[in-house]
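Take a record:
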Amino acid sequence: MEDEHHHTSASEPESVAPGISSSAALEALKDGPRGAMVVAATTVGLLLVGWLVFYFLVFLTRGTVG
């Protein structure tokens, strides 16, 4: 059985982005955590609103059990 050597696209120099300075990287990443928090807060808010709608329209309209 013959072993084949596989090349990834990252092994080709023309497929890899050129390096940047650390100050340029910090500038590009400075708003990353804020954006992630906005997405997470929006998702949690929508989930809470959906749960409240479900609670008030389904559970409370059925009345008490027993």
